[in-house]
Amino acid sequence: MQSVVLCVVVLKCVVASCGAAKVSPFTDDARNPFALKSSHSSRSDGSDLIVCYLTGSPAFWNKNAAGVVEPKDIPDDTCNTLNLMNWLGIRGDRLSWSNDFNWQVSLKQVIHEWRDRNTSWPYNKDGSRAKRIMVTIGDAGQLRNLVRSAELDQGLLRRFAVNVRTFLAWTGLDGLDIDWEYPGWHRPWQERPMFLALLAELRKEFDTALPPLSRRLYISVAAAASRGIMESAYIMPDMGKYVDWINLMAYDYHGFVWYMPFTGHNAPLEAAKNENGTFSELNVHWSVQRWLDWGLPKEKLVLGIPTYGRSFRLVRPEVHDIGSPALGGGWTNFTDACSILNSADGVRVWDSDSQVPYTYRNGTRDWISYDDEESVAKKVQFSREFQLGGVMVFSLDADDHEGVVCSVGRKNKKKFPLLRRIVAEMRKTF
Ligand SMILES: *[C@@H]1O[C@H](CO)[C@@H](O)[C@H](O)[C@H]1NC(C)=O
Ligand SMILES: *[C@@H]1O[C@H](CO)[C@@H](O)[C@H](O)[C@H]1NC(C)=O
Ligand SMILES: *[C@@H]1O[C@H](CO)[C@@H](O)[C@H](O)[C@H]1NC(C)=O
Ligand SMILES: *[C@@H]1O[C@H](CO)[C@@H](O)[C@H](O)[C@H]1NC(C)=O
């Protein structure tokens, strides 16, 4: 059954040459700050991606709900691609939406308050829209059902792809982002090829059915950073042909788990000197190199940078190095890391091996691994040295978006300090 499905989806055109680009009304590249580095950017449209995940459900918008970022809050000239999470699901062979918020109104809000808002670079070099809105599907159960049903029903992926394309054309959105964590988790021998078949079907539909749509529709995948998951989830280099880019989830390398109850970095850039064997693979550098070695073109690799962190509860307050015994822990955000740093006993430690900080409240059990302005800047520099397609920020909500807690002791309040530092670093010429 699988081989039948796979045979149908022969790639019809080379990805880079597909899609009809409009001629840009702006011939003046100076308008586009990202065009400054067009000699650096390896992407064909001349712009590096700055993909941002908007994770707070629109059900909470317009209610001044604490902790929820709305489209109007996103600073000008920062993100150029917005991934809308928690909007859509899949039912049968179609996209479906929840009724607990009026998604059409919310969509108009994103388009009006973010995409069409004044921006200094409306078009890319190739005439494509400089600000893109992608919609993310990410319910693992629903995705699993989709590909399992497709094993028995050969036309299902095709119908799904047509439905997605129609939805994108109708709403004016730019593409589909798939955040399936993870294909192959349950039945690798089936889900792995079926996931590839899904991507192939989407690519075929997006590319061949363009008119009367004159714009390109994009496909991105939020992909794993660890060897085990990569190998059971994805088929490379084929997958690299179908996607426009991959959002590398270069984080969650360490977090509290009962079977490894020790402190560690959520997203270390480099391996520590004393790490060997599989432990030396738990870092951003290893994952990036592995994807490139696996055949993903560098311009299709987008480096994920977390604004969130991992908290740990130390067993003994006085033992607070990397690898210290922990009792528990969880997810946390930059704001919470700053609260510790602001406290009288807050200590920041920069790990020069891993190129990321951690913080603890001296004399207590509170310990947090996080990224700050220094480490996100290093990661951007790294992505540019490797000439990757850009960076992804996960997520807007976890940054200090109100600009209060992390600005303590500074002259000016700064909203979204991590996002702003990432963008500033992207714009530097070198
Ligand atoms: C956009 O910004 C520019 C420069 O700040 C300004 O001159 C222009 O009027 C703005 N346009 C809109 C539609 O707000
Ligand atoms: C890894 O390092 C530890 C101690 O640092 C050592 O005992 C072990 O033999 C090393 N393993 C390998 C595979 O090199
Ligand atoms: C994250 O940040 C918000 C403030 O925006 C705060 O209220 C919340 O408690 C923080 N921590 C976690 C774990 O979400
Ligand atoms: C932590 O607290 C102990 C005991 O008060 C003190 O001796 C030590 O210097 C503190 N460490 C830091 C890094 O502040």
TrEMBL record:
GO terms for cellular component: extracellular region. One of its GO terms (molecular function) is chitinase activity. Keywords: Glycosidase, Hydrolase, Signal. Residues 1-20 form the signal peptide. One of its GO terms (biological process) is carbohydrate metabolic process. Residues 48-429 form the GH18 domain. It holds the Pfam family Glyco_hydro_18. PROSITE patterns: GH18_1, GH18_2. Belongs to the glycosyl hydrolase 18 family. This is GH18 domain-containing protein. It comes from Notodromas monacha.
